[in-house]
Every structure is written in structure tokens, then in C-alpha cells.
Amino acid sequence: MSTSASTPLSALARRLAPWLVPALILAVWQLAAQAGWLSTRILPAPLAVLSAGYELAASGELLTHLGASFKRAASGLLIGGGIGLLFGLLNGGFKVAETLFDTSLQMVRNVPHLALIPLVILWFGIGEEGKLFLVALGVFFPIYLNTFHGIRTVDPGLVEMGRSYGLSRWQLFRRVILPGALPSILVGVRFALGFMWLTLIVAETISSSSGIGYMAMNAREFLQTDVVVLAILLYALLGKLADVAARALERRWLAWNAAYAS
Amino acid sequence: MRFNHHENQYLSEVDARANQAVPAAAPSAAAPTAPAAEAGLATKVAGVAKRFGERPVLAGIDLAIAPGEFVAIVGRSGCGKSTLLRLLAGLDAPSAGAIALDGRPARGLHPDVRIMFQDARLLPWQTVLGNVTLGLAGPRREVDARARQALAEVGLADRADEWPARLSGGQRQRVALARALVHRPRLLLLDEPLGALDALTRIEMQRLIERLWQEHGFTAVLVTHDVAEAVALADRIVLIEDGQLALDTPVALPRPRERGEAGFAALEGRVLKRLMTVEALNPRNQIRGKVAEILLDPVLSEVRIDTLHGPVVAAISTRALRDHPLEVGAPVLAVFKSNDVALARLDQGDDERPLTEFFPIPSFIG
After folding, report:
1. What number is the average pLDDT over the span B168-195?
2. Where are the domains of chain A?
3. In a designed cystine with A130, which of A120, A191, A211, B208 is the match (CB 3.0 to 4.6 A)?
4. Does the beta-carbon distance from A257 to B114 stay under 8 Å?
């Protein structure tokens, strides 16, 4: 091997290296399943999962379930995140609001929201409302806490400067306080996305007639392990996509910050 | 590398302008575009005191600043000079006394007053242009044009669209200066804005501030601990010690001022000496005594002093001793500052006014 040719080659190798172990595991898995060492009852072959995915996609069923899950996740995030942002801004910005609400919110925060499932079923039944409520509750706290923290840690020197340069209260909020809190708020959003999927998985397995969780539970009844594994992989993929979206927001909104500049 | 290039280019530009400004200074002061009397804000401080809890920071300051005057406030850190500036800016309210701007009592923030802080305090999430337009009202295009003009005045027109994080410390302070000037302030307050800059950038900034002050005619109050900076820029130097005015001296040197000139050095020395004298007046860190013995040495001599609290040995460079001779039996004042001690000769038999001829002799405890 000549040294001059190894430079682009080694660059390629460096990019592929992280994928070496996953590829190897997949190959061994496929081999074990084909040789009959691994019962399909325990774990189906990767190719079987792939073909199950293809079949479900072709029938349109996959898209329906994906759409249903996505809709629940997004509306839960919007409602819970919106309320969390509102309370974070309010309590971070006004001492009175903090005194009134923060203690109560901190108490509720310490209850694991999934422990409320029996109560939620009693309140809302097994329809959409209960699932939305759980997702909204799950995303509320990370966004609330990080918004509150972000507002509180805005450089007081900058606020003082803004005041002395004649900014109105709204301008001060819009141009100094909110952008200053934004890095922290976006950290909250990324945490919230994690909680969003977690809550959704649990909520959809309670009882539903659509969604990826429903698809997995249904497949379990018929011992379709390939569809169950497919559902798990879809959750992983959706989580990754949400993370990529959050990173894109950070790169766009925090372009001024050297830590986020691409 | 790129920044250095800009800095150098800019430095020579400033030099060129400063040189041009010499003959132009007189007519520009009388030019109809910037009549100093109207541009500057008359500022009057009457009996102003400030306490933080139990701790008094300012105790009865009286100071009248004429429109267009450049006043430098010097003093050691913690003497209350920055507090006075914050009161003038309306960021804090005085505990007693009153501040009047143009004869009207000032309460809180004033639209004609702008302050420049020691740290530039630029918003990192706004471009340089966005920072300069902060707080300006009006149509976007007009506001941007004014901001660009202000940036051009400080030599940063080509950096308008960059993030502040990409600028050097000196460039950030120039942006902060542009942000202050774009509001057309009639009183510009400068709170040690050059304290964190290197020596060369600092001199360059001083020239820029002087030139813009001459062009715009605003009243300027500069807080600094650098006496040379005060002498270079101010019409008048005010010294604050322990919350009170300790010195108020005019600077009668022609502009532009050169650091090497005899008058410059003499005034700087006088203010510095006074600064140290005032420090010596503080009874907490001084002992009176008599010289008991002088051990001469070609380089470092020793002076033994008998005090009420026991003997003190001060090591003094022989050169300093030659400049300010001491003899056995001479009454002296030993002033302590951390591990250093300064000796001062006291006039015999005149304990009430010993400090008129006060020469601190740099020395340390042996």
C-alpha cells in the first residue's frame, strides 16, 4: 500500500469505523437466525424484520400507525411544552409568580408522571385525552425547569445595559432576556423529546386502536416477533429524528454561540 | 492574523486623523454643526451620598461639570468612583443629596445620558449592527443607516454583520462606543472602559474617544484608575478617596497631548503623588517615628526607625535616599501597604500640616 493512496482511504475508514460493530452484530444475528441457533420466537432475523416492515409499508398500515403516533407526540409536546414555557417565563420573570406557583410545581414534579396512569384512565377513559395528558405532563417539567433556569441566569449586566439604553420592558424581554435564555430552553426541549417518546410508548400500550405501540401489542398477541422488533426500531428512529430536529434548531437559533456553530 | 492586520491598518488611520486634527481642532470647536454649549449636558452633583446597607460608599460629593467638559474621576478601587458614575447614569438612586442635569433634578434613567461599561456588554446573539441599533426607534432602514455611520466613526464599518464573539477586546469596546454615540448622548459616562485592554489598544482608544468628544461636544465623565489616561483625556481631574473629593485640578495642557512631554509627566507625577498622599492620610496604616540609624550601602540602604510600637527597619534604594535625604533624628511617617512600607519625611514641629511636603520613598520592610 502506498502512503499517498492511504490518505483518502484512511479518511473513509475513519468514517466507516463506528458502523463496524453494529454491522458485525447484524451479520452474526442474521447468521444465527438462519442456522436455527436463535428461535424466531425470541428474535426474528434482521431480514425478516425488514420484510415485515416492507409488507406493512406496502399495505399502508405502517404509515397510519406512524401518523397516529406522531400526531399524539406532537400535540402533547405543543400543549405541555407551551404551558411549561409559559410558566417558566412567568416564574422566571416575576417574583410574585414564582412565590405563588414554584413550590406547587416542584411538588408535582417529584411524582413520576407514569404513576398517574390508573388515575388518568379513571379521569379520561382509554381514549386520546389520557394519552395526550400523559405526554403533555411528561414534557412540561423539563421545559419549565430549563426555561426558568435560563431566564434566571441571563447576564444581569446585559439586562442593566438594555435598561440604560432605553429599552421598553417588551423590548428588553424580546432582545435581551429571551435570547439569553434560549440555549437553556433548547436543552429543555431536547430532554422533553426524550420524555415524549418514553411516555408515548407506555401510553400506547395501555389500550389503543392505532399507533406504533398498538401495532407492537397487537403483534405480540399473534407472536409476530418481527413486527414487535420493527416497532422498537421505529421508536429508536423517531427518537433520533427528533434529536436531529432539535440540533438543527440549536444550530439555527444559536448560530452566535461558538459552542453550537457548525 | 486577520484581526492584527485590521488593527494595524486602523491604528495608522487613527494616527493620520489625529495629526490632521491638530490644525482642525480650533475651527471644528466653533463649527455650527456641533455647538458645544448645546451638545453637552450641564451636570451638577450636590451633597450626594450613597450607602449600601450600613456601609457608606459616598459621603457628600459636590461637583459641577460644565457643558462639554471632560472630567476624569480617579481613585483607588473601592473608593466609590464607579458608584458616583452609576448615580449619574440613573442606575442607582443616591441615599442623600441631588443630581441635576441641565438644571433639572434627575431621577432615574435619562435619554440624553449613555454609559459605557468596563466590559463591552454587547449582546452576543445580535450582530455588531444589531447591537448598535439597540434602543433606537424609527424606520429600520434609517436606524440601520445611523448605526452604520456610527460604526464608520469608530472604524468598524466593515464588521457590521459579524457576531461580537469574533471581535477582539478593543474592537468590542469600539462597538460599545458606537452604540453609545448613535444615541447622540449629551452626557457620556465611561466606567473604566479601557481597563481590560492592552497598552497599545488603550492609547489608540483614548485618541478615538478624544477625537469623537471634540467632534460631538458632549459632556464626558471618565472613571479610571490610570492617572496617565486621566491626564491624556481630561479637562479636569477629580480624585475621590474614602467617598469624598480629595483633589480637583484642571489639566491645562494643549491637545493632542503627548505622554513624553514635560508638562504631562509633571501633572501625572503630581496626581500620583497626591493619590499616595491621600492613601497615607488614612490613619489605619501609618506609624510615626524617628530615624534611629541609617546603614548606607551602594545599592540598598537600611533605615531603622524607632516608633511607639517598637523598631521598624525599612530597606530603601540608595538612589531614593539620595533624592530625599534623611538624617538620624528626623521625624518620619511609615505608611504600610501589604508587605511594602513607604517613608515620608515630616516637617519638624508642624504636626498639623506635615503633608504639604510629602515625598513617599519607595521601600520595603527589612
Report:
1. 93
2. 48-253
3. A120
4. no
Determine contact, residues B180/B115, Cβ cutoff 8 Å. yes
- B138 has a chain A CB within 8 A of its CB: no
Q: Which of B279, B297, B322 is the last residue of a domain?
A: B279
| Average pLDDT taken over every residue of chain B | 80
Candidate from B114, B121, B134 with C-beta closest to A175 = B134
Helices (H), B53-198: 81-89, 128-132, 140-153, 169-181
- Exposure string of B285-301, with b = 16+ CB inside 10 Å and e = fewer, is ebbbbebeebeeeeebb
B107 shares a domain with B196: yes
Of A163, A175, A256, the CB nearest to B124: A256
| pLDDT of B103 over the 70 cut | yes
| Residue A166 with chain B: CB contacts under 8 Å | 109, 111, 135, 183
Provide the CATH number for the domain around residue B79. Answer: 3.40.50.300
Superfamily of domain A48-253: MetI-like (1.10.3720.10)
- The CATH number of residue B360's host domain is 2.40.50.100
The interface predicted TM-score (ipTM) is 0.76
Q: Is residue B191 part of a domain?
A: yes
Residue B343 has phi, psi (to 5 degrees) of -105, 140
Q: Which residues of A touch B (CB under 8 A)?
A: 157-158, 160-167, 171, 175-176, 179-180, 182, 254-258
Query: B238 with B75: CB under 8 angstroms?
Result: no
Cβ(B157)–Cβ(B151) under 8 Å? yes
Domain around B297: 285-365
pLDDT digits (tens, 9 = 90+) for A205-256: 877 788 888 888 888 888 888 899 999 888 888 888 888 898 899 888 888 8
Number of domains in chain B: 2
SS3 B313: strand
Q: Establish if B70 belongs to a structural domain.
A: yes
The model's pLDDT over A28-81, given as tens digits with 9 standing for 90+, comes to: 989 998 888 888 788 888 888 899 999 999 998 889 999 999 999 999 999 999
Task: Identify whether residues B273 and B293 lie together within a single domain.
Answer: no
